[in-house]
Amino acid sequence: DSKDYDSETESVCPFCGVGCKVSLKVKDGKVKYVEGINGPANEGRLCVKGRFGFDYIHHPHRLTKPLIRREDAPAKGLNVDPGDLSTHFREASWEEAMDLAATKLKALREEDPRSVAGFGSAKCTNEEAYLFQKFIRQGFRHNNVDHCTRLCHASSVAALIENVGSGAVTATFNEIVNADVAIIIGSNPIENHPVAATYFKQFAKRGGKLIVMDPRGVGMRKFADEMLQFRPGADVSMLNAIMNVIVEEELYDSQYIHRWTENWEAEKEHLRQFTPEAMAPICGIEPEQLRRVARTFANAKAGLIFWGMGVSQHIHGTDNSRCLISLALMTGNVGKPGAGLHPLRGQNNVQGASDAGLIPMFLPDYQSVMDDSIRAKFNSVWEDDRDFSNEKGLTVTEIIDQAYAGNIKGMYIQGENPAMSDPDADHARAALANLDLMIVQDIFLTETANYADIILPASALYEKNGTVSNTNRQVQRVRPAVAPPGEAREDWAITVELGQRIGLNWDYTDVSQVFNEMKQTMASLDNITWERLETETITYPSLHETDPGQAIVFGDGFPRAEGRAKFTPASVIPPDEAPDEEYPMIATTGRQLEHWHTGSMTRRSLVLDAVEPEANCSMNPRTLKLMGVEPGEMVRLTTRRGSIDIMVRADRAIAEDMVFIPFAYVEAAANILTNPAIDPYGKIPEFKFSAIRVEKI
Ligand code: SF4
């Protein structure tokens, strides 16, 4: 009851890209209860994370004062007790910490500006992401700035920009109400986008044809008309076989292809070799099912394709997305109600942070850093008569490699946790330990902050003012329900002060000024104003000042030459490492319903941690029986990168030669095991396929 609380504040859930709107009920300076309210993406619904995952903001581990590494601290490593930081760090005033950070950054810049790099955050607001990329570009004159999109949907974005001219979804997930058929591939929305999954389930219950494709027998299979549990890494062979059927049986939409696409003849010829019979032994799906799925999708009036990181996190992730784009284009399923392409975005603001330019090859709105006139536009808005580099910057994994090699010497890391999230984590941790200067801005002493020289205490989303953009391209306001603890500050304010201290001409006093500056450089924000966002959620593009925004785009052409989308043929490429005698099984990583990414927030949430307190992996019960392992026992998992000991669960949904490992647990960190090999286009690592050995211990 509202009379039980001192205040109620509307904001947005801080976890996944669905972007559920919430009301935060505050009593005695603490958030006590979170309720789902009527946002366009959630219509009052919340999942367990949104409902119960809020008390981390009041956890005693919150950073409340700036910290500086002690001169007599032990060697850098994962060895700081979060309950007693004094062995490694001493408390400092903001003045001392900022002065030290700025002095050291300026010294590195003097020596070699390219020795500094930045990791921003998809957990921060659009304004904070924009300021962070500007800090590196204006402050150091290069583009070595990236964030976790590199580990998430970078390959999807690369394929979308290449072939439809824009990296965002072409239709909101709510458009499924107008679809006859939907494909969900490489995604487990029941655990990872649970509120979106409720719309998908309703669609299936209403009689919509649901086709689920995944190497794991994910939960959506219970609602599916077709479940294709294909071989890990065999996406291209399966999708090309489906498209081969559409070509051979002439089920494609000639009119649409003729009017809105290019390179069709090459795609058609390329697909002829991928017959269902030839591809079945590779992808593990019977030719008859491939034919049935092709006919169902091609003959529907409107079809949507959703995909997740099972598609993107491969060395052929861009090819996987190219196939999905081709499938939608050849069946005319872009730009009309109930149809489209929708990579389900992971972090709550990974769409917004990418849009805001937190990417080494793109400025805000995916404008190329290599284009002189675009850089000139930004320099003009930034009132700066100097230029910055026209070369693409380094990506997340490239920055880590360069830190390991000693070429990157200083990093500013805002709300990212590469010590847990990067592939081959031992290598990433050695790289972080090798830095001369690491400034970490975060709310907890994350595993990454263990390696920091200077730690700046920042704010959780429920303590912030600004905007975020969800997987649907919907821009929403977040508002502070409570003040940050102790001396912690909002991230944008910290970046502004650090910017001023390294000599930037910044005079922002309110976050709305940052938003208004973004509008000068980002056409996607046309007609979206700070004032409108006070009361509205607006989907970009918004065509006029009262337009709530376009749920579907590209009905009248694509933002490419002549308005045409492109077919890019994809060939079958094997995973980077094949199972062999020494490493005979396949490891894949991901999330669980209760835990978010590297666990720093959800493992400090009472309810979520109580439900899932222990590091675990999952294997097929038949495999466990053959190994003589009981569910609940410990196993040792070993790959070419390293080894972890972890409790194993039985799960029939996992194929007999696979292991599924969540990456939230530092005590058995999945990324110690993962393969850092990357996709050549999106530069995304192959998290979804590592050859692995499992031993009973
Ligand atoms: Fe939060 Fe995503 Fe759950 Fe919605 S579905 S409550 S945004 S975690």
UniProtKB/TrEMBL annotation:
Keyword 4Fe-4S: yes
A GO MF term: metal ion binding
EC number: 1.2.1.2
GO CC term, one of those recorded: oxidoreductase complex
Signal peptide extent: none
Domain 4Fe-4S Mo/W bis-MGD-type: 6-61
Key word Iron present: yes
Keywords in alphabetical order: 4Fe-4S, Iron, Iron-sulfur, Metal-binding, Oxidoreductase, Repeat
UniProt record similarity statement: In the C-terminal section; belongs to the prokaryotic molybdopterin-containing oxidoreductase family.
Protein name in the entry: Putative formate dehydrogenase
